[in-house]
Write a structure and sequence with these properties.
Elements lengths: L7 E10 L2 E6 L11 E5 L5 E5 L9 E6 L5 H7 L6 E4 L16 E7 L4 H9 L4 E8 L13 E6 L9 E2 L2 H7 L5 E8 L1 H13 L7 E5 L2
Parallel strand pairs: 7-8, 7-11, 8-9, 9-10, 11-12
Antiparallel strand pairs: 1-2, 1-6, 2-5, 3-4, 3-6
Bound molecules: flavin-adenine dinucleotide.
Flavin-adenine dinucleotide (FAD) binds next to β4, β5 and α1.
Length: 216
């Protein structure tokens, strides 16, 4: 039984970049589906929604948070340390893995912290044959997405890092051969999703095979 009243203990707060961090918390509900999200905040204060970054079988809960300048809750979470307490609401959401047939190739497209559900997918199902296309503005927002065996980093800002594609995920997708992918999952900001969804449909992917989660 999930107890909403008792606060959840923070176990660690690990920086992943200048503005991003992974918050590790006790896991007090037995099950969730990779791709779902939870509402998190200080006890008695406002909460915000965060995708689960940890896998279904992991002993603790993890979320990947970007500290938004002037943002209420992300700023409060950024300064938490082991032993502090947070409120965590039950997992919900439908951005979950559809049944993948053996040999099916999946396309994961994320901007910024939108990689979080894809890490949860791959930790829960390491057998998935997926390519992650990750769009960031600066190379420092890479968030170490090496959990994905096949990935493309797209850097849209002026600073580049070795091996990265110079441009937005849309530009990479426009040039790529997408014929092998049978299903796509898109997660991140609304602009990316509004551009990538029709791009994939124009390139022959059926609408019901494109799944989306919009952060803001
Ligand atoms: C389904 C879902 C899953 C999400 N998962 C994650 C996640 O895994 N990791 C994560 O970091 N965030 C995630 N978010 C975003 C998160 O819920 C908050 O919106 C974000 O942390 C900002 O909250 P805040 O209280 O700090 O800012 P607020 O006080 O709510 O906003 C302050 C200002 O910042 C702007 N703003 C809000 N969010 C952003 C943003 N992301 N980037 C730039 N400007 C912004 C607002 O428009 C406002 O002007 C998710 C949102 C949804 C809907």
């Amino acid at each position: 039984m999930f107890d909403l009243v008792r606060p959840t203990r923070v176990l660690a707060n690990r920086a992943l970049g200048p503005d991003s961090f992974v918050l590790t918390m006790e896991r007090r509900f037995p099950s969730f589906q990779a791709g779902q999200h939870i509402d998190v905040g200080l006890p008695g204060a406002e909460t915000r929604t965060y995708s689960l970054y940890s896998g279904e079988g992991d002993p603790h809960l993890e979320i990947l948070v970007r500290r938004v300048r002037g943002g209420t809750v992300s700023s409060q979470l950024a300064v938490l340390a082991a032993g502090d307490q947070v409120r965590v609401d039950r997992p919900r959401g439908k951005f979950t893995l559809r049944q993948a047939l053996p040999g099916e190739k999946l396309l994961f497209v994320a901007t910024g912290t939108g990689i979080a559900p894809f890490r949860s997918f791959l930790r829960s199902r390491p057998d998935l044959d997926a390519t992650l296309v990750h769009g960031v503005r600066d190379p420092e927002d890479d968030y170490g997405a090496e959990f994905a065996p096949s990935r493309v980093l797209c850097v849209s800002g002026p600073q580049l890092s070795g091996g990265a594609f110079a441009g937005r995920v849309t530009a990479w997708l426009e040039e790529a051969d997408l014929g092998a992918f049978s299903r796509a999952y898109l997660c991140g900001n609304a602009r990316m999703i509004f551009e990538v969804f029709p791009l994939l449909v124009d390139r022959g992917m059926e609408e019901h095979r494109v799944h989306t989660e919009t952060y803001f």
